[in-house]
Amino acid sequence: MIKGWYTAASGMMMQMSRQDVIANNIANTATSGYKKQVSLSRAFPDMLISRLETTADPISKSIQAIGRLGTGVCLENIATDLSVGNLDKTDLPTDLSLAQTGSYFAVETEQGERYTRNGAFKINSEGSLTDNQGNPVLDKDNKHINISGEFIVDRTGVINYADGTATVTLKVLNFSDPEKLERFGDSLYSNEKGLTTSVVPANPDVLQGYLEHSNVNAIQEMVDLLSVVRSYESLQKVVQAEDETVGVAIDKVGSTS
Predict the structure, then answer these.
(1) Are 230 and 222 in contact, with CB atoms under 8 Å apart?
(2) Rounded CA gap, 140 and 167, in Å?
(3) Could you read off the pLDDT of 201-219 as tens digits, one per residue?
(4) Helices 218-254 and 2-27, interaxial angle, to 10°?
(5) DSSP string spanning the chain?
(6) Which of 6-20, 26-40, 161-175 has the lowest mean pLDDT?
(7) Over the stretch 17-47, which tens digit does the pLDDT of each residue have?
(8) Residue 107 contacts residue 114 (beta carbons within 8 Å)
(9) Mean pLDDT value across residues 83-93
(10) Beta pairing partners, 90
(11) Are 25 and 221 in contact (CB under 8 A)?
(12) What is the arithmetic mean of pLDDT over 185-211?
């Protein structure tokens, strides 16, 4: 009976973790460049349940297998769906998007260099190109990008100024295994594990005047959330049933009448 408690309780904890991930996805449905997260579970090792049977000979006994019994589940990992979201045409010159999967813009934060696909950039009061959190966008030489007047960004990431001044190139990186990037907030990633990086070669497919939508399907997330809630409620009833069974057993064992 105690195993029933532990098995149901582990399932409830797993559903709570799934709910947190789904709620975060729903909250970032409108966040440009946001990548959906998915919780992955791992089952504990099964137990083989057997029954000891007495034969016609009272001395000899036989063991008959009944089947396998699950012992619970736990959170294995939270994976990231790196697929490209829909691109929305905004016609704003500071809105940039990347059409290639696994490519990221580089920005400078107080914690160091971070990477993002959220190209909803702005020009601050000092003329620097920044992300929506005020972090400066970096060029290929790891310098801040200062914007003066009108500018055009081509698909190779080169910023051309209308007044003919020197051009700069956006720092766009690819990673050897982008799924291992560590999430830093909702739309920034860090390379704390030291993954191999490479500057996107000829054409990183930078699109000016476009924003990449979140790749979260809000309707699907709501359906998944309902499934999580129902699973949690079912497991909760299992815990209650186990509690009632144990209570009855204790009352009968402890009864002196």
Answers:
(1) no
(2) 12
(3) 567 889 999 999 999 999 9
(4) 160
(5) -HHHHHHHHHHHHHHHHHHHHHHHHHHTTTSTT---EEEEEEEPPPEEEEEEEE-SSSS-EEEEEEEEE---EEEEEEEE--PPPPEEE---TTBEEE-STTEEEEEEETTEEEEE---B-EE-TTSBEE-TTSPBBBBTTS-BPB--S-EEE-TTSEEEETT-PPPEEB-EEEES-GGGSEEETTTEEE-TT---EEE--S---EEETEEEPP---HHHHHHHHHHHHHHHHHHHHHHHHHHHHHHHHHHHHH---
(6) 161-175
(7) 999 999 999 999 999 999 999 999 888 887 7
(8) yes
(9) 92
(10) none
(11) yes
(12) 79
Tokens coding 89? 């045409």
Percent of the chain at pLDDT > 70 equals: 90
How is residue 33 written in tokens? 């460049």
Cα–Cα distance list, 256 to 114, 249, 252, 253 (Å): 70, 13, 9, 8
Q: Residue 220: in which H helix or E strand, if any?
A: helix 218-254
| Token pair for 58 | 């009272």
